[in-house]
Specification:
It is built from three helices and six strands; from the N terminus they run ααββαββββ. With 161 residues, the protein is an alpha+beta fold. The two termini are 24 Å apart. Belongs to the thioesterase PaaI family.
């Protein structure tokens, strides 16, 4: 896996979610682990695109437009879903196909409203254990200002093979 993943326009028609995974910036080396659900329907709806993909750092973007609440600002639930997506994917990378991450705790603090453009989330590990992981996710606006900080803890369940 490349530490600084840059999406390439490659296609593999053998994978049932090839178009979706390529569109969302998931490196082909990860595709074998995503044959049942791809990136999931919520990632599609929120338009999350991965921009960096490694066990030590995941990054992704999400547009504010289409993910707003009644006052026209970024919905806190959308921010939480972005954070959980990155934290769970990072836990899955740590499990390296031997375990399934299950979120047991997610908290998020909203510092500033996301009003327009694109938000960027950066996920880094706090703890990488054999049975659990903890990741911090920082979400920033186009100006680089922090708009939210999240932390997720995942339990790693053995895969049923």
């Amino acid at each position: 896996m490349n530490e600084n993943f840059t999406p390439q326009p490659t296609q593999s028609s053998a994978h049932p979610f090839a178009d979706q995974l390529a569109r969302h910036g998931v490196p082909e080396s990860i595709w074998p682990y995503l044959t049942h659900n791809g990136v999931g329907e919520l990632v599609e709806k929120l338009q999350i695109v991965f921009t960096e993909f490694s066990p030590q750092r995941l990054s992704a973007t999400m547009p504010v437009a289409g993910n707003t609440q009644v006052y026209g600002i970024l919905h806190g639930g959308a921010s939480a879903a972005l954070a959980e997506t990155l934290g769970s994917m990072a836990a899955a990378l740590h499990g390296a196909g031997t375990s399934q991450p299950v979120g047991v705790d997610l908290n998020i603090t909203h510092h500033k409203a996301g009003r327009s453009g694109v938000v960027t989330a950066q996920c880094t590990p706090v703890h990488l254990g054999a049975r659990s992981t903890c990741h911090e996710i920082i979400i920033s606006n186009d100006a680089g200002q922090r708009i939210a900080t999240a932390r997720i803890t995942n339990m790693l369940l053995p895969l049923d093979r």
